[in-house]
Amino acid sequence: MILRKVSCKNRNERRDLPDGIEQICGSAFYYCSGLTSVTIPNSVTSIGNSAFCKCSSLENVYVYWSKPISVDTDVFDLNNSGYIVSNLYVPKGKINIYKGADVWNTFANIEEHGDEPSPSGKKGDVNEDGVVDVADITSVANIILNGEAKEEYSIEDKIRMLETMKNQNVLTEDEFQAIKELF
Question: What is the distance between the alpha carbons of residues 146 and 166, in angstroms, rounded to a whole number?
Answer without folding.
Answer: 20
